[in-house]
Amino acid sequence: MDEKILSQLSIELGNRLKPQKLSITCAESCTGGWIAKVITDIAGSSAYFNRGFVTYSNDAKHEMLDVSLASLEQFGAVSEQVVKEMAAGALKVAKADFAVSVSGIAGPDGGSGEKPIGTVCFGFAFYIGEDIQTVTCRQHFVGDRNNVRLQAAIFSLKTLLEEIIKN
Questions:
Q1: Is domain 1-14+21-162 classified as CATH 3.90.950.20?
Q2: What is the pTM of this model?
Q3: Which of 32, 37, 87, 131 has most Cβ atoms within 10 angstroms of its Cβ?
Q4: SS3 of 145, please?
Q5: Per-residue pLDDT averaged across 14-23, rounded?
Q6: Which residue spans within 8-159 are E strands per DSSP?
Q7: Signal peptide location in the record (predicted)?
């Protein structure tokens, strides 16, 4: 059922982006490319999706998206500060109109008191004029590793549709 929801969300995203000749990119950590996969599952998605980034390690976040080492050190990879930088970096590198970034703890290991398993941070970036604007949020999902990742992908696409790409 959830896979069907992802497909419907991807179709809707394409239906909003394609007529306006807008594009999207993604920078994924815990979702491991799942968002890019569901976007590109839709025939014709090359009209609005040029590339995505799977930046699972801190080195990849820094090297590919220019996330600052200071942010990674101070806030950790699963933080609103880091996903903000991931989204902005992806937006610039891909020369896209919109970007979504995701970093989280899908489990079954890696949680802490401050960031328990199921904690996922999201970044959404877009241009207003020449300036990059970013919106971030933190969510907590329940379930096993697969369910946390699936819920994160669904949340990403829903948020893009509901909050970022309003027109």
A1: yes
A2: 0.96
A3: 87
A4: helix
A5: 94
A6: 24-28, 53-54, 98-104, 119-128, 131-140
A7: none
